[in-house]
## 1
Amino acid sequence: MPEGTTQERETAGKIRAADVPAHVGVIMDGNGRWAASRGLPRIEGHRRGVEALRAAVRAALDFGLDYLTVYSFSVENWSRPVEEVTDLMGLLKRFIRNDLKELHKVGVRVRIIGVRESLSPDIRALLDEAEDLTRDNTRMTLVVAFNYGSRQEIAGAARAIARKVAQGLIDPETIDEQCFASYLDTAGIPDPDLIIRTSGEQRLSNFLLWQAAYAEFVFLPLHWPDFDRQAFASALTEFASRERRFGGVGSPSKKQRFLDRILP
Ligand code: IPE
Ligand code: IPE
Ligand code: MG
């Protein structure tokens, strides 16, 4: 979002910052280490991770976000032991079965991004059901990146465009950023303003590579099951203190103005 068009939002005193991002992407990492550090099996970390996800959605609604994108399973995660993959698929199914009604009730629209074709029919049906039921909701969009890989998404978009060029339906000269973005899974969704990753790792791991061109990044040292409202608020506060420039010269005093506002 270009400087100057960032919406100023009141957040009911939950955080002091005024600049709440419209779209936050979250790389929910560290479930396994959270469990291991407690002598628990990795699945227990994933279970607690689902609880943290529920709380994150509630907080995002309270903070007034328009979009929350959560990275829940990457195309590379198939390389994990088969038992863990089975557990993760089971948790997704349970999450949708248990939480879909409530999400719908509170006005959340669900969008799924990632490769659908290679998923089992029951999971595909659940994903379709979640999108269909909540299609017209407007309070917030929860984008679930499941079996998602950004490079695969970009290659898929290139393939789809190439097909249309070969059929004479698209003139290659008309392919610009906007055209390309409309072939990504995230078509119609604004780019993330902020990407949060838990677990201390500082990498994207194939998440929203195209879309994150001008995102701010916040890396938190805690593991995903420990990500709570407070941690979310602190990431948003950090975001609010950043000066986004989008390649321009920006307004150098913005950070100072923010600090002046929040420091006694
Ligand atoms: C994130 O936690 C959940 C998924 C990737 C599905 P991890 O399972 O990656 O936990 P760590 O990084 O091994 O601790
Ligand atoms: C990224 O975490 C994927 C998800 C959170 C779903 P990983 O744990 O798979 O990433 P790497 O392997 O540490 O890069
Ligand atoms: Mg991990």
## 2
Amino acid sequence: MNLQEFWNEALSQLKNEIDPGEFAFYFSSLEFLSSTAEEVTLTVPSPIFRAQLEKNYLPQVRGKLLELTGRPIGVHFEIRESKSSPVLVKSGMAETHRQGPARSARKPHQQLNPDYTLEKYVVAKNNELAYSMTVAISKDPGNIYNPFFLFGGVGLGKTHLIQALGNAVHKQNEKAIVIYVQAESFINEFMTSIQNKTQSAFKNKYRNVDVLLIDDIHDLQNKKDTQEELFNTFNALYEAKKQIVFTSDRAPHELKNFAERLLNRLSRGTIADLQLPSWEIRLVILKSKIEQRGLQLPDDVLELIAKKVNTNIRDLEGALNQICAYGELLKREITLEVAQEQLKRVFAGPAQETVPIDLVQKVVAEANGLSVSDLKGKRRTQAMALPRQVAMYIIRDLTEYSTTEIGMEFGGRDHTTVMHAVQKIEDKIKTEPSFEVKVQNLIRIIKDRAGS
Ligand code: ADP
Ligand code: MG
């Protein structure tokens, strides 16, 4: 696949989507340099230009390429050799640039998972801000977003992203000292150093880094002494303009039993969060995972997994592994039925026949401040139409009733009306994660009540 053509198309589409003045300013001086299967390299006139472009337009550019090619494409900006700006050559940024982007195989970083790279991170609405900040930091650690606080629920990609940052910095500059540590290990190491009276070695280690990545900082809740030590480490690094990155399963203000002054430091820089991607994006992630592993699965199986596994990306991968392992073990082809069966084993709920239609109607009506007769009735105001469609969708999802039977339960509506409703809700879920969460919450309530 030649990405140059995709790039040209992306450019012409972006032209219609971006303010003309901005477009002329930023995009007219971009030049296509080269591409690989997963990355395009463009040139820009200066480091400042690059930083601005990345800050303001990288997510949109990546999003457009994702849309056009159907897979995540890395976008790399190189600075053009420019005879007319000797000033830039003196600056730190140009200095690192002169070494060129490291394409050669370097020794991988000891503590970092080599699979956790920026290239393998699928970027979409749910994470584009966090992603583009990480990319910016990787190009100029210590100077842009410092400290950087990344939070999000379990399995949403925090460790992947923070390690990808470490890998990127290491790849560009092998001499840069990058330390990645789980907060849990940080605590243990610190405690051991007290016992063994090796505190100065501990201090030396953590105050002598260019990039310090501390994963799962919420584990420091209640750990007064370690918090104190981290506070001092933070100050030393911050003053020396060294990059510090934290991840957490919650926002800074939600951390409990945390020394006020440390909290204050943690949240003084930039904060970004990761959210659950829509199922459309979960499908892209699944496809990229199986491609990386050289596996193949039918599209309908992948779609099923993407739709059904809506907790987080770790579970998504878990389900994929489970299904693949099953197929391999039993040498069975993975059909939609096999996948369905396996998913049921992983995500067992109450038996589906036990969910009564009127329970669904009742829960959905209540949640929307409507009565069941509103829901079944003829009125078609938006306030009623959407909940009605949601109820139809949920019944179709949880039970074996046919669309004709469901139509009967909604004041004798035609089966095509039900099909239309299901399709509409599927489409909406596909692109609106917040809507998906609402529907999933309803399903959870309904299953709970059906089970009790
Ligand atoms: P967390 O640290 O937030 O609990 P992880 O970083 O361990 O989550 O992510 C769980 C799994 O999901 C990892 O295997 C990771 O590679 C994968 N993953 C998460 N987000 C993405 C993404 N945007 N693109 C590709 N893989 C992802
Ligand atoms: Mg993690």
